Amino acid sequence: MEEMSGIRKAALLLISLGAETSAEILRHLPDGMIQKVSYEIANIDFVNPTDRETILDEFIEMSQARQYVIDGGVDYAREVLNRALGAQRAKEVIDMLTQIQLRERPFNIARKADPMQLKNLLLNEQPQTVALILCYMQPDKAALILAQFPLELQTEIAERIGTITRTSPKVIEKIEKVIENKFSSYVENETETVGGVNTLVEILNSVGRGTEKNILHALDDRHPDLADEVRANLFTFEDITTLQNADVQKVLRLVDNDDLMLALKGVADDIRNYIFSNMSQRAVETMKEDMQFMGPARLSAVEESQQKIVGVIRTLDESGEIYLRRGEQDAVIS
User: Fold this and answer.
1) What does 150-219 look like in DSSP terms, one character per residue?
2) Which of 154, 260, 270, 297 is the most buried (most CB within 10 A)?
3) Phi, psi (5° rounding) for residue 321?
4) Are residues 296 and 206 in the same domain?
5) What are the distances in angstroms from CA 20 to CA 14, 15, 25, 56?
6) Same domain, 100 and 112
7) In this structure, is residue 86 part of a structural domain?
8) Do 205 and 235 form a contact (C-beta atoms < 8 A)?
9) Do 240 and 170 fall into the same domain?
10) Which residue ranges does the record assign to the Flagellar motor switch protein FliG C-terminal domain (predicted)?
11) Model pLDDT for residues 43-57, shown as the tens digit of each residue
């Protein structure tokens, strides 16, 4: 399902919703999209019941997530979805929604352009045009570009950004076409920045512990500098002792007790004791009793539970609810 194109998903969804509802939806789509979806529908002979259910579930989740973002922003949406779907699925839904929103927004070509090339081209544009484009760009990239302008232009552009409230879609479309034609020779249409240490860390934080260890051991021999950099940014279950007590307690509130008991099987006493120190005495006593009756557990099951807890920690870190110390990052000032 993850590899299925958006057009095919849309076609399956419309088939699942029935002819009357689908016709009403298609009426509101652009002509080009209607043609693509209609062609896909015509080439689907049978909808697997499992695919149908998955598509409908994903559509409902995305619709709810979009509404949560409108109601309270991304952090609010993530918090609600965490409770409803679990940390991992919530992250997947938010990531999909973010990508969809980015594709839907105007000036997509500008968001992909190299910041310095973009700055050189925008220097010759009117301040109101620059302001409009920056409004639709990633904040960090917009900040980098704005800082390259002369001070008097920075102020004028900033003022226009702060006072823009509404802009006609036709005006946006007209400017976008001009900008796309102007930028087309500067943007690397065939390549995008991918990979790197951060991407590797994100992947390793999602694989099993055994795979993670094997890759890092191999990197020690092949590329020791890369291995060191990855370790400096990689959060493992054992690193839970580096969290503040309040942060550990936030994590424990979102962790299933069965996963916690499995995750603690075979870990060092200092790790187990640190986690227990952030639980009530009654909860600790109950867990210790339950663990005595658990019996042996498969290593893969233990590692899977540990990875689930690491996933919760990473989700809370990404939403800014807890803080992970990584590598040479600055200390937090309270």
Assistant:
1) -HHHHHHHHHHHHH-----HHHHHHHHHHHHHHHTTTS-TT-----SHHHHHHHHTTS-HHHHHHHHHHH
2) 260
3) -80, -25
4) yes
5) 10, 10, 9, 17
6) no
7) yes
8) yes
9) no
10) 218-324
11) 887 788 888 888 888
Range of lowest pLDDT (85-89, 100-104, 270-274, 275-279): 100-104
- Type of residue at 319: S
pLDDT tens digits, one per residue of 55-102: 888 888 888 887 877 677 777 778 888 888 888 888 888 777 766 654
Q: Report the C-alpha gap between 211 and 259 in whole angstroms.
A: 20
Q: What is the pLDDT of residues 106-164, one digit of tens each?
A: 566 666 666 777 777 787 788 888 888 888 777 777 888 888 888 888 888 888 888 87
Give dist(CA 185, CA 188) in Å, integer.
Answer: 8
CB atoms within 10 A of CB 309: 23
Residues 121 and 139 in one domain: yes
Task: Give pLDDT, residue 125.
Answer: 84
Per the structure, the count of domains in the chain is 3
DSSP one-letter code for 192: -
Exposed/middle/buried for residue 60 (C-beta within 10 Å: 0-12, 13-18, 19+): exposed
Return the structure tokens found at 135: 């409004």
C-beta neighbour count of 44 within 10 angstroms: 12
Q: What is the mean pLDDT of the chain?
A: 79
- What CATH number does residue 235 fall under? 1.10.220.30
Give yes or no for a contact between 37 and 11, defined as CB atoms under 8 angstroms apart. yes
Decide: residue 58, CB within 10 A, 0-12 exposed, 13-18 middle, 19+ buried.
Answer: middle
> Any idea which residue has 């979102």 for tokens?
254
Tokens 């969809």 locate to 100
Whether 76 and 135 share a structural domain: no
Question: What is residue 156's predicted lDDT score, i.e. its pLDDT?
Answer: 87
* Structural tokens at position 23: 């016709």
Tell me: do 207 and 287 sit in the same domain.
yes
* The token pair that represents 196 in the structure block: 């790197």
Which pair of tokens denotes residue 15? 């088939």
Domain that residue 94 falls in:
6-104
Residue 323 falls inside a structural domain: no
- Judge if 314 and 206 occupy the same domain: yes
> Which residue's entry shows tokens 């540990």?
306
